[in-house]
Design a protein that fits this description.
Layout (H helix, E strand, L loop, with lengths): L8 H20 L8 E2 L7 E2 L1 H17 L4 E4 L15 E8 L1 H5 L6 E8 L2 E9 L4 E6 L4 E5 L5 E2 L12 E4 L8 H16 L5 E3 L4 H9 L5 E5 L3 H13 L3 E3 L14 E5 L2 H13 L1
Parallel strand pairs: 3-4, 10-11, 10-12
Antiparallel strand pairs: 1-2, 4-5, 5-6, 6-7, 7-8, 8-9, 12-14, 13-14
The structure holds L-MYO-inositol-1-phosphate.
């Protein structure tokens, strides 16, 4: 199966249309108080009715265009939702940064990726509050369209000195869970806090961290405990913007969408420096 069969402009414009329409469902409840449920009883892992509604909407729209493709969504609204395989599969996070969405903090986005051989070949991230649309196709570059203006090509930061870098690290839903926090603190945060970088950030949404790297305002983003829908579109967009994606555990191991961890760096030098710092403590 040729990648070109899937990653063409018509697929991209279809996904962009679906993402923008789905974004209206998120924007409709912006600024209001929202009800939520805790996933599996975890008070830090939240889901709203809008997450489910948006996922349902995206699945229905995309299935009308691509009935033979497979679908994976964070909220599992569809019984047909499957494990990631090599077949063409849509990987969808209807609201990445659900906690931000609940708190009306505007770092939240829809993430849609078409994956083949377990790697994204088309990726779209849409923040419907800031009206920022990020997209990439494999080999076709990465772009940002803002407030309906013409799209601009994305390029990662050219900084090659970690000491002049801004780095984002997410705690994810680990708050209140000592084991997970200790691991993140010891292996990621402490080594970086102990190193004179310009600063650490936590945006609360994997997609928004990836996009901060893609547009060059953050030099690297580090997170463990991620799921394929947190990473699929973002990883492609960063890669197409010139970034380097590695696994936290081993910088020589190729990135895996099922690998649950990522370091997205603006370039090879920053990637190597981050790995050196994380392995030095
Ligand atoms: C969230 C991510 C966030 C991560 C959380 C969670 P959700 O996704 O975007 O960066 O730290 O663990 O996965 O649940 O808001 O879609």
């Amino acid at each position: 199966m040729l990648l070109e069969d899937h990653a063409d402009d018509s697929v991209l414009s279809t996904v962009i249309g679906v993402a923008k329409k789905a974004g209206e469902l998120i924007a409709a409840s912006w600024g209001q108080a929202k009800g939520f449920d805790c996933k599996d009883g975890h008070s830090t892992d939240l889901v709203t009715q809008t997450d489910r509604q948006v996922e349902q909407f995206i699945f229905e729209r995309l299935k009308a265009f691509y009935p033979k493709h497979l679908f994976i969504g964070e909220e599992g609204v569809d019984e047909a939702s499957v494990q990631l395989s090599d077949a063409p599969t849509w990987v969808v996070d209807p609201i990445d940064g659900t906690t931000n969405f609940i708190h009306n903090f505007d770092q939240t986005a829809i993430s849609i990726a078409l994956c083949v051989n377990k790697r994204a070949i088309v990726g779209v991230i849409y923040n419907p509050i800031r009206k920022e649309l990020y997209y990439a196709t494999q080999g076709g570059g990465a772009f940002l369209e803002r407030y309906g203006n013409d799209a601009v090509r994305l390029t990662t930061s050219s900084t090659d000195d970690l000491k002049r870098s801004l780095v984002s690290i997410e705690l994810g839903a680990a708050h209140g869970e000592a084991d997970k926090l200790n691991e993140k603190w010891q292996n990621q945060m402490f080594p970086l806090l102990n190193h004179p970088i310009h600063g650490l950030r936590q945006l609360g949404a994997a997609t928004m961290n990836f996009m901060a790297v893609a547009r060059g305002c953050v030099e690297a983003y580090i997170e463990s405990g991620l799921k394929p829908w947190d990473m699929a579109a973002g990883e492609l967009i960063v890669r197409e913007a010139g970034g380097v994606i590695t696994m936290i555990d081993d910088e020589n191991e190729p990135f895996r969408l099922t690998g649950k961890q990522v370091i997205a760096s603006c370039n090879q030098q920053i990637s190597q420096s981050i790995h050196r710092v994380l392995n030095s403590e």
